Inverse folding.
């Protein structure tokens, strides 16, 4: 692993908002792709912060600060991403009802928008009905649901059930992600796909957009 990628991880872990931009540029100058930097640097750094939060070493303010650090780096990386085509479709992103975490969701949104998708980000603590109303009004074919808290996973089921009741399940793909999610949970909740990382999410939505 390149030292520059490890430095990105450390910057996020240490909440270094002043240094992250220069480190992202350094990684790009060394020939690393934006996707590699996100996958191996930013995502891994966020995992460290999340683990420290769970262990009580970091607090909510630290989680929020980590998100701000990531926000400093993402525009730099977004400029260097290969769009790979336009008009791939509309993706609705939301953190499910009862959950207010949004760092991972925001990263997914930036990557998708840089790669030809129109992104409608509904924010956090979003009820199922608002998600479905937006899907109807926008004609979106894709929904991405984020959940970090294990206690909120039933909110995923509510969205899937509401989509079925509204007659949308045949045309709308529902993808889940977040620290508490898994492929097993995806199957249990009746969602279509699970993405462990933001890059996984891009691959999944690209496949759906291509009709794979």
């Amino acid at each position: 692993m390149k030292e520059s990628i490890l430095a990105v991880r450390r910057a996020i872990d240490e909440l270094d908002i002043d240094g992250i931009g220069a480190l992202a540029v350094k990684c790009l100058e060394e020939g690393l792709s934006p996707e590699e930097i996100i996958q191996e640097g930013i995502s891994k750094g966020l995992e460290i912060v999340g683990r420290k939060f769970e262990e009580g070493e970091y607090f909510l303010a630290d989680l929020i600060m980590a998100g701000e650090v990531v926000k400093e780096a993402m525009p730099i990386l977004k400029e260097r991403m290969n769009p790979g085509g336009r008009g791939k479709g509309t993706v609705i992103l939301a953190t499910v009802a009862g959950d207010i975490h949004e760092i991972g969701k925001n990263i997914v949104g930036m990557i998708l928008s840089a790669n030809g998708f129109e992104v409608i980000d509904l924010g956090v603590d979003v009820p199922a009905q608002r998600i479905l109303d937006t899907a109807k009004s926008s004609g979106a074919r894709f929904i991405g649901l984020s959940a970090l808290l294990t206690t909120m996973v039933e909110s995923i089921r509510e969205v899937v059930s509401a989509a079925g009741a509204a007659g949308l399940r045949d045309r709308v793909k529902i993808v889940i992600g977040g620290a508490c999610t898994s492929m097993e949970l995806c199957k249990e909740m009746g969602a279509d796909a699970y993405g462990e990382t933001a890059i996984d999410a891009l691959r999944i939505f690209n496949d759906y957009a291509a009709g794979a």
Summary: The chain has two domains: 3-78, 89-209. The two ends are 33 Å apart (CA to CA).
